[in-house]
């Protein structure tokens, strides 16, 4: 696992955008795995800026998002579908994007459908990840076992509290979600993990202990051959 420490969050986003630029140059029809949360927002801004300057072209690329609340209507402002359109898809020319359907009638069938789509696309070339305060990746929460395929997960108290900042006081916050399992994350050819802010310093230091703590899902990344962690000084405990 390679660690790149940047001076600031802005530098993290620029560095990550450079990785996308290289990826799309090498393989214009890349399959991109994308994440939500506050951490990738600056990267998405930078990608949109470079696209509008004519520096990036997503016209042959496609994407798969890691997760979505369930149940939630895709038009709900807190859905990850809405988030992705607002922060990225409405601003670039990506050929195709997929997000688990938060309004699917049958969540299990939706997971099977989503996995089949990823397989049909040939798997993910570049997977973007953030990390939860409890070490979750996507919505793979700390657990004793981790499904390989996409699944319906009950969110932990830690994630519900951490994400409550996005919901209004009277707004219903889902406590379950559909998330890509560990399998498709691991079959990704390259993984980019972005970490920013002092609040993530504890979980970051755990990750870099070089020990696979089984209750920290992100520690499994230590087993993947091509993971780059781009981190700011605050998250690095500096
Ligand atoms: C959510 C998402 C994760 C993301 C995490 C961290 O729970 N499901 O994919 O990594 O939030 O979010 P933030 O970047 O806001 O700390």
Which helices and strands occur, and which strands form pairs?
Elements: E1 2-6, H1 9-26, E2 31-34, H2 41-52, E3 62-65, E4 67-70, H3 80-89, E5 96-98, H4 107-120, E6 126-129, E7 151-154, H5 157-163, E8 176-179, H6 182-186, E9 190-195, H7 201-207, E10 227-232
Parallel strand pairs: 1-10, 2-3, 2-6, 3-5, 6-9, 9-10
Antiparallel strand pairs: 4-8, 7-8
The protein binds 2-amino-2-deoxy-6-O-phosphono-alpha-D-glucopyranose.
Description:
With 238 residues, this protein is α/β, with parallel strands linked by helices. The protein has a single domain, classed as Rossmann fold, CATH 3.40.50.1360. It contains seven helices and ten strands. The strands form two sheets. A seven-stranded parallel β-sheet has the order 1-10-9-6-2-3-5, covered by helices on one side. Helix 1 crosses helix 2. Bound molecules: 2-amino-2-deoxy-6-O-phosphono-alpha-D-glucopyranose (GLP). 2-amino-2-deoxy-6-O-phosphono-alpha-D-glucopyranose binds at residues 35-39, 66-67, 130-132, 138-139, 159, 163.
């Amino acid at each position: 696992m390679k660690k790149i420490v940047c001076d600031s969050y802005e530098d993290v986003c620029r560095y990550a955008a450079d990785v996308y630029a290289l990826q799309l140059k090498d393989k214009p029809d890349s399959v991109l795995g994308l994440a939500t949360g506050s951490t990738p927002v600056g990267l998405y801004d930078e990608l949109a800026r470079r696209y509008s300057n004519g520096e990036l072209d997503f016209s042959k690329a496609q994407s798969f998002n890691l997760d979505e609340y369930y149940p939630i209507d895709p038009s709900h402002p807190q859905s990850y579908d809405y988030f992705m359109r607002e922060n990225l898809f409405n601003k670039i020319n990506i050929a195709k994007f997929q997000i688990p359907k938060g309004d699917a009638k049958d969540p299990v069938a939706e997971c099977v459908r989503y996995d089949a789509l990823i397989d049909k696309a040939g798997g993910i070339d570049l997977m973007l990840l953030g990390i939860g305060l409890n070490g979750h990746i996507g919505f793979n929460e700390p657990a004793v076992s981790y499904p390989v395929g996409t699944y319906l997960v009950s969110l932990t108290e830690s994630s519900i509290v951490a994400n409550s900042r996005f919901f209004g006081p009277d707004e219903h916050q889902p406590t379950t979600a559909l998330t890509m399992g560990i399998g498709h994350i691991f079959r990704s050819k390259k993984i980019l993990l972005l970490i920013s802010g002092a609040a993530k310093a504890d979980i970051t230091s755990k990750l870099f202990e070089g020990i696979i703590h089984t209750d920290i899902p992100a520690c499994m990344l230590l087993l993947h051959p091509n993971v780059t962690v781009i981190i700011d000084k605050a998250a690095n405990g500096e």
